[in-house]
Design brief:
The complex is a heterodimer.
Chain A (H helix, E strand, L loop, with lengths): L3 E4 L2 E4 L5 E7 L4 E2 L4 E2 L1 E6 L6 E5 L3 E2 L7 E6 L2 E6 L8 E7 L6 E2 L3 E5 L1
Parallel strand pairs in A: 2-13
Antiparallel strand pairs in A: 1-3, 3-10, 4-5, 6-7, 6-11, 7-8, 9-10, 11-12, 11-13
Chain B lengths: L2 E5 L2 E3 L5 E8 L8 E6 L5 E7 L6 E3 L7 E6 L4 E6 L8 E8 L8 E4 L3 E5 L2
C-alpha cells in the first residue's frame, strides 16, 4: 500500500497569512508514462462531506479560489493557502490515487489564530 | 446538478448486516466508476470499495474483503454496499463518491452527505 502522511496535524494562522500543509507518500506517485502526479487535496468543513480542491497535485477544480495552490512531485507535496480567509477553516486531506487502495492522509486541521 | 443521496444507515449489533444505498442524479450514472468512502467518528477518511461502470470490476480495502459487497443498478441510478459480519470498527459515516473522468481515476469529484452506521450491542 502507498501510505500518505501529512504534517502538521493542526495549524493556526492569522487571517490574511499563508498556511502550508505538507504531504508525503511512502512511494512515488509520479507515473512515468504520463508524467503526472496521482495526488489530490480535499477540504472538509465541519458537518460536511469532503470537497475536491486539487488533483494531479496542482490542478485546481473549477470554482476553487486561486489562493489555494498545490505543488510537489514524486513523494513530497504541499498545499498552500496564500491568504487565509475565515471560510477556509477546515480539515484538509491529501490522497493518492496512483494505486488501490486509495489512501488518504490523516488530515490537517486549519484554524484562525 | 450532481446529487448523491445515501440511505440505509443505522444501529446494528456486532455480527449483523446492513445494506446501504446511494441514489444518483444529475449525471449519466452508467458512465462513471463509483466508490464508498467511510469516516469513523472524529477520524480521517478511508476508501472502502469501488465498482466499474458495468459492475464487472470491483475492488475493496483489505479490512472489508469477504464481508462487504459493492454493487450497482444502472437502470435505477443506484449504488449499494452490502455489509455483513459487521464489527465495532466499521462504525463510521459512509459516503458515496463519484470518480472523476469516467474511469477508475481515484479522484472523488462529488460526494454525498453520508449515512451513519453504528455497530454496537
Amino acid at each position: 500500500d502507498i501510505v500518505v502522511t501529512q504534517s502538521p496535524a493542526s495549524l493556526a494562522v492569522s487571517l490574511g497569512e499563508r498556511a502550508t500543509i505538507n504531504c508525503k507518500s511512502s512511494q512515488s506517485v509520479l507515473y512515468s508514462s504520463d508524467n503526472k502526479n496521482y495526488l489530490a487535496w480535499y477540504q472538509q468543513k465541519p458537518g460536511q462531506p469532503p470537497k475536491l480542491l486539487i488533483h494531479w497535485a496542482s490542478t485546481r477544480e473549477s470554482g476553487v479560489p486561486d489562493r489555494f495552490s498545490g505543488s510537489g512531485s514524486g513523494t513530497d507535496f504541499t498545499l498552500t493557502i496564500s491568504s487565509l480567509q475565515a471560510e477556509d477553516v477546515a480539515v484538509y486531506y491529501c490522497q493518492q490515487y496512483y494505486r488501490t487502495p486509495r489512501m488518504f492522509g490523516q488530515g490537517t486541521k486549519v484554524e484562525i489564530k | 446538478e450532481v446529487q448523491l443521496v445515501e440511505s440505509g444507515g443505522g444501529l446494528v449489533q456486532p455480527g449483523g448486516s446492513l445494506r446501504l444505498s446511494c441514489a444518483a442524479s444529475g449525471f449519466t450514472f452508467s458512465n462513471y466508476w463509483m466508490s464508498w468512502v467511510r469516516q469513523a467518528p472524529g477520524k480521517g477518511l478511508e476508501w472502502v470499495a469501488n465498482i466499474k461502470q458495468d459492475g464487472t470490476e470491483k475492488y475493496y480495502v483489505d479490512s472489508v474483503k469477504g464481508r462487504f459487497i459493492i454493487s450497482r443498478d444502472n437502470a435505477k441510478n443506484s449504488l449499494y454496499l452490502q455489509m455483513n459480519s459487521l464489527r465495532a470498527e466499521d462504525t463510521a459515516v459512509y459516503y458515496c463518491a463519484r470518480e472523476a473522468v469516467g474511469g477508475n481515476s481515484g479522484i472523488f469529484d462529488y460526494w454525498g452527505q453520508g449515512t451513519l452506521v453504528t455497530v454496537s450491542s
